[in-house]
Amino acid sequence: MSNSVKDKISSRNLWGYAIGAIPSGLLAYVFSLKYVELFYDDLQLLPGLFILGQIIYMTINALNDPLSGQLSDRTNRKKWGSRRIIYIKYGAPIWALTFLLVWFPWSFDNQIIIFFHYVISICLFDTMLTLVVLVWMALLPEMTSDIDERNKGHFLSLVFGAIFVVPFFLILGDMQPTSQSFQFLMIGIAIISTLFLWLTAYLCEEKPEFQKDEIFPLWKSMKETFKLKSFLIFIGFNFCVTFLSSIGLSYLFIWSFILGDNSTIIYFVIFILVGYGSNILCMKFRPKWGMRKIILRFGALKVVGMLISFVLLVIVQSSSLAMIGLIISTFFGGYGVFVVPTMYLSADEDEINNGTRREGMLLGMNALFTKPAASLGPIVATIVLELFLYNSGSDIQSAFTLIGIDILFLLIPAIVTAISLIFMYFYPLHGEKLKDMRVKLDQIHIEKKAKMKT
To answer: 4, 46, 93, 396 - which has most CB atoms within 10 Å?
Structure first.
């Protein structure tokens, strides 16, 4: 349901927020695309060390999010002038430097040095990613409380990200992460990303009525978060979504064995045309069906389609069948445009319960549980590839290995997607309950604005 009072987001804020997706895409997704290939495939870090590093990464990855969220929520607004934008402005160049640290190997043959480079660089990169991206994401629900405006802002950010990121991905797809040309390109990406983040900090504005919200101590903030049933259910759903996304992009180099030549181009053509087309379709259905119902219906069709594609692909290894499976998964996965806006509903519910907006903590607590999925995905993928005798660095894989790749990209996603739908089935914020919540939220915001004038 839309708000009773349309809370339009200004053009300046809308474009400023969307621009923030460009550096988020360039840094975060290039990292996801290439870091596994660099350490696991090119530098050939031993599987045991790779998995150990993922466990360390998973732990740090989980803990730094709620701490970053609390840091943002508790920032002194009078001293710094904001509690979100300040971290985008000053965190941008530091994040870019940690990004560069990943791509310059400390050793090419010493497993211990490669391991330390692997762990230190990805943990530092993720810490800064967490701080900058978390506050960027927290801006949107503060700038507008309208569901469709949020969906529009989120979708526009996805489009902006793709316009700038996909060309780089097509260039990077076949480049060796250890090559000098790749390293020079990474330097360029780091500079461009810093400039775009500064532009986002300049264009976006934090609403003054939220600057006087009560600041909770860490323990109370965490405690109040756990009281939200909608948020706890969302965490289960988003854990599955994050798990699958960590496999899909980080192991894109594996797609070539089942999609054939030009696999990177094929992947991104489908990603853009089919994926964004489905995003738009889902947004059109939103006023009639609601986000929860769309996720359940499209998700069920996605599971069935991937299972059928998997069975056919195991029987007959064909790049055409693999492409059809990818198209089905992408089209019926178009409900992904609602994942982040669904979490924003919990922030709205929390504001009704506590009178304060705490997107930072909710985003952080969400990551405390779902960020481990970003490491669990590569761990599971590595185990599957090792069990099916994947030959690192080779351009040819056995028929037995191809079955393992089919499992990795179709069977496992079908199972995990089905699990995610169980969580979404029990999600409470929909229908009349959601409509009533929106009315209460509008009233709270009217009262906060009135207090600013007195």
So the answer is: 93
